[in-house]
Amino acid sequence: MSVTVPRGFRAAGVAAGLKSSGAADVALVLNDGPDATVAAVFTANRVKAAPVLWSQQVVRGGVVRAVVLNSGGANACTGAPGFQDTHATAEHTAASLTSSVPRLIVGAGEVAVCSTGLIGERLPMDKLLPGVRAAVRELSRGGGPAAAEAIMTTDTTSKMTVVAGSGWTVGGMAKGAGMLAPAMATMLCVLTTDAVAGSELLDEALREACRVTFDRVDSDGCMSTNDTVLLLASGASGIEPTLAELTAAVTAACHDLAQQLVADAEGATKEIAIDVVGAASEDDAVEVGRSVARNNLVKTALFGKDPNWGRILAAVGTTSAAFEPDTIDVAVNGVWVCRSGAAAEDRSKVDLSGRAVTIRIDLNAGSSAATIWTNDLSHAYVHENSAYST
Amino acid sequence: MSVTVPRGFRAAGVAAGLKSSGAADVALVLNDGPDATVAAVFTANRVKAAPVLWSQQVVRGGVVRAVVLNSGGANACTGAPGFQDTHATAEHTAASLTSSVPRLIVGAGEVAVCSTGLIGERLPMDKLLPGVRAAVRELSRGGGPAAAEAIMTTDTTSKMTVVAGSGWTVGGMAKGAGMLAPAMATMLCVLTTDAVAGSELLDEALREACRVTFDRVDSDGCMSTNDTVLLLASGASGIEPTLAELTAAVTAACHDLAQQLVADAEGATKEIAIDVVGAASEDDAVEVGRSVARNNLVKTALFGKDPNWGRILAAVGTTSAAFEPDTIDVAVNGVWVCRSGAAAEDRSKVDLSGRAVTIRIDLNAGSSAATIWTNDLSHAYVHENSAYST
C-alpha cells in the first residue's frame, strides 16, 4: 500500500518527539528515479504556512527528489523565523540524503516540505532535525505505511491508496480529519507514480483530479493554511500513459483518499454525499452542494437523524444558482420528502440510522450535476475542536 | 416598553394553540393613525415563506394598518396552499378589525403577516383564525409586552426596546434565537413610531439601520426564509423628524434589539464582537468579520475558552479583503496575541471566563472598520438544533 508501491520510491516514518504522545511524527518520501518530475496543488488560503511558501518555490523548479513531512506543528503564522526553519529542514534533509544514499546528490531546492498541527507555534528544530536523520536511515521500499502513520494528527487511522495502470501504478497517502474545506482541507497528500510523465502532464492530471475530489470535500467549511497535494513521478516503469489514462488513475487515487478523509472526520457520525442534479451548470451544482454542506442547521439536524428538508431549501435559497423555489425536489436516503418546493413523501419513511447519508437535490434547471461530501455537526466535533489546543 | 409606547398603537398577544406548550402564539399590532406609513426589510433568501411574499406586496402598497404575527409555524415551503393560508389570515384580520374597531375600515391589503417556527408544514388555520379574533378583542395600549411574548420560539426572553426622540419615540419588539445570519436571522421585528414620516423617509432610515445592526449579526451563518423587519409610523406626535434624527433613533432601536438577539442565541455561552479595523473599505471589514464569525473552528475554540488566533488568521485568509498575511494584528479581549501575523503576547494572559468576547483584527490596510456580532458553537447549540423538529 501507499507511496512505496510504485517502483522507484522509498519512504520512512519515525518518532522525533514532536508529538507529546511519542507517536511517529516525521515522514520522508524519496524518489530514486530515474525521473523526478512533480506537480502540486496548494491551499487557496492567503495565509499560507511556511512549508507551503517553500514548497511552492521548490515545485516551480520542476524537480522534487524528496518530501519531508512532519506532524505535531503546522509552522504557520510563524513569520520569517518559521520560514527559516522550513528552509533549514530542507537543507538538512538534502544533506542527510546526499551523505547517506550512494550516488545521490540532492539540493535543498529539490526537497518539498509539509507540516501539520497547531498553527502559530515554532517547530522544535532540536527534535525535528535528528528526526530527519533517523528517517533517512529508515528509508525502505516497504516504508509507505510507516510514512502514512507519521503524518496523522487527529486522524484515527492512516489513509493509503493504490491504483493500477497498465504496467504502472499510482500510490498515495493522506492525512486530515478536520478543517476539510473548499480547495481542500488541513490535509497533506503525497501521490507517487512510476509512470513516465513530464511535469506539465502531471500538473494537468493532478488539477483535474483535485477539482472533482478533494475540492469537493467540505467537512466543516474551514480552509487550512497548510494544505498540500504532491504528485511525484519516478518513470521507473518505463511506460508513458496518455493524459486521459493518468488523469483517470490519479482521480481514482484522490477519490479513494478523499472518501477516507470524510469517513474519519473529527467527531462525525455521518458521511454525507450531497448530489446536486438538474443544475444549469456544474458551478451552480457545486455552489448549491457547498451551501448545504456548510449549513450548521442542516448538519445538526442530520446528527439528530432528522430529515429536515426545510433547512436544506433555506440553504439552497442563499445561493445564486439558477432555480425556482417552487420547482426544487429533495430526497434524503431515497425518500422524496420535498417535491416542487413543498412537503411530499412522509419524512418518517427516511432511515437515518446508518452512517451513510445521501441528499439528492434536483434543481430542475438543467442537466449538470456535482457531488459534495461532508459530515454532520456533532457533540464530538464541538468537543474535539474546543479542546484541541488546550 | 415595546411597540405600544409610541402614541397611536395598540397591540395584543394571545394563545391560539399553535404551540403545543399552550404559550402565547398570535400577536397583533394595530396602527390607529392618523398616518399608516410603512417601510420593511425582508430576508435575502430566495426561498421566501408565504407571509414574506404576501407582506412584500402589502408594503409596496404603502399603507399598513395592522401586522398579525404567529409563532408555532413558519408557513415556508408550503406552496400555493400556504400562500392562500396567509391571504386568508390577512383577510380575517382585516374583517375582524373592521367589525370590532369603531370608525376603522381595514382591507386585507393593509395587513402585513409574519410567521415563525418550523419550515415545511401548513399552519393549523382552525386554530389560527380564532386566535386572530381573540387578539383583536385583546388589543390595548399596554399590549406591547404581550405581543412580544407571543412571537417567541426558542427565545428564552422577549425582546423589546424604546428609543426617545424629541417629542416622538420609536418602540420595537423582536424574536430570534438561532438561524441568525447575514441579511438577518429567523427574526421578526416590528418597530413603531409616532413620528410624522412618509414611507420613503421610513425606508431610507430603516435600510441604513438594518445595514449596520441586524445585517451584522451572524450567529450561525444560516439565513432564514421568514426574516421580516417592519417599521410603522402613526404620525400621532405631530412632529416630523429629519432623516438623520429618524435614522439615529431607528438605528439605536435596532442595535438594542440585535444585541438582545445575540445575547439569547440558541445554546450560546459567548457573545462575541468581532471588531475589524484598519480595513481598506467597510466592505472588506464586513467580509473579514463575517468570515471569522462563521468559522466553526474559531467558534468551538471560543466555546473551549481558547484564544486560538491561528484559526482566526486562517479564516481571514479565505477572504478577498486587502491585507498582507505578515502585517495582521489580532487581540482577544484586549491581549494582542498576534502581531504582524505571528505570535506576540502570551495567550495565557487572555481571560475568556466571561460571556463577553471581543476579537479585534487590525488589517493595517486602511482606515475603515466594522463590527460583526456572533456566538460560540457549543454542545447546547448542537443539542437544540439536532432535537428541534423531532
Automatic annotation (TrEMBL), chains A, B:
Site residues by UniProt (Involved in the stabilization of negative charge on the oxyanion by the formation of the oxyanion hole): 116-117
Main location: cytoplasm
Residue(s) at site: Cleavage: 185-186
Pfam families according to UniProt: ArgJ
InterPro entries per UniProt: Arg_biosynth_ArgJ, ArgJ-like_dom_sf, ArgJ_beta_C
Subcellular location field: Cytoplasm
Subunit composition and interactions: Heterotetramer of two alpha and two beta chains.
Family: Belongs to the ArgJ family.
Name used for this protein in its record: Arginine biosynthesis bifunctional protein ArgJ
Gene: argJ
